[in-house]
Design a protein that fits this description.
This protein is mainly alpha-helical and 184 residues long. It has 11 helices and no strands.
């Protein structure tokens, strides 16, 4: 059997109920307009660092519950008790740096929402940037955001191209949603 050349090629071999297939077909590369959903994707990408994406996808529902639906305002107001609750929650990744980054990034996002009217507006304000420029901006603005995390976050939310190959059946569906990377 030939080795798949892309995520799209790999995923098309999976059953429809596979977590990767569900993510690929329903979320990956599609533009997100809701700030809490953008925050969710950022937290999930941060938590994936050093782990498999399969692990994150399998824990996604529990992450959502543990982080109060990724409500930015609620997470920004987390105190020590919430931090300890998250660090003791076996349903998510129990990593102090990643938990602290989620809380700090929620607090940063409150400021971004106040100044720009929302996380999406902040992203739109800075678009288009090269991947390198995005990484520099994210590192200056957020915690625990390296090159791979920023790249995947931006590809997965429609700000950078590459989530789907042109031969993927989802490519045209993503394009129809007018992702930021396709706007002139």
């Amino acid at each position: 059997m030939d080795k798949p050349a892309s995520y799209c090629d790999t995923v098309c071999r999976y059953e429809p109920d596979n977590v990767h297939r569900i993510y690929h077909d329903g979320a990956y590369g599609f533009p997100i307009t809701d700030d809490n959903e953008l925050f969710e994707r950022l937290v999930l990408e941060i938590n994936q660092a050093g782990l498999s994406w399969t692990t994150i996808l399998n824990k996604q529902a529990h992450f959502k519950k543990a982080y109060h639906g990724f409500n930015i305002r609620k997470v920004a107001n987390y105190g020590e008790q919430d931090r300890e609750r998250l660090l003791n929650d076996a349903g998510i990744i129990r990593n102090r740096l990643k938990v602290d980054a989620a809380i700090a990034n929620a607090r940063t996002l409150l400021g971004i929402q106040k100044e720009y009217g929302g996380f999406k507006h902040w992203l739109d304000h800075h678009h288009p940037l090269t991947k390198e420029e995005w990484v520099k901006l994210f590192k200056k603005t957020f915690r625990f955001t390296g090159g791979e995390i920023v790249n995947e976050f931006l590809m997965s939310t429609g700000y950078l191209p590459g989530a789907h190959i042109p031969s993927c059946p989802l490519y045209k569906k993503v394009l129809a949603q007018k992702p930021a990377w396709a706007k002139k």
